[in-house]
Amino acid sequence: MNIPNFEDVPFVDKNGLLTDAWKNILQQLFQELQNNVSNEGIMIPQQSAANIIILTTTESIGSIIYDSTNNVFKACFPNGTGGAIYKVINVT
């Protein structure tokens, strides 16, 4: 999900209408939420196994991802040596 950044620009113009910048920000935010958080559930990001290896950093600890190469869900945990590791979430 790509949440738009906050932009320090006027929210409304002199007529009290949303500025074009904020129309775009809100449109992107609503689109991302509709695509990824809906009545059908929360969409977990998908990555290939090769990309997951690259994304395995301490900043990823606590994240959940879908491994599209192996068709499994994975969660990132501390590896005990100051790093991180993605482990398969077993669903039975």
Task: Give the gist of this structure.
Helix content is 26%, strand content 24%. It is of the alpha+beta class. The protein folds into two domains: 1-40, no CATH class; 46-88.
Write the layout of secondary structure elements.
Elements: H1 20-36, E1 37-38, E2 41-42, E3 46-47, H2 49-55, E4 64-67, E5 72-78, E6 84-88
Parallel strand pairs: 3-4
Antiparallel strand pairs: 1-2, 4-5, 5-6
List keywords for this structure.
single chain, 92 residues, four-stranded mixed β-sheet, elongated, alpha+beta, 2 helices, two-stranded antiparallel ribbon
Descriptive overview:
The chain folds into two domains: 1-40, no CATH class; 46-88. 26% of the residues lie in helices and 24% in strands. It is built from two helices and six strands. The protein has helices spanning 20-36, 49-55; strands spanning 37-38, 41-42, 46-47, 64-67, 72-78, 84-88. It has a four-stranded mixed sheet. It has a two-stranded antiparallel ribbon with strand order 1-2. The longest helix has 17 residues, at 20-36.
User: What radius of gyration results from the CA coordinates?
Assistant: 18 Å
Whole-number mean pLDDT:
91
Estimated structural class: alpha+beta
> What's the N-to-C terminus distance?
27 Å
Q: N-to-C SSE series?
A: HEEEHEEE
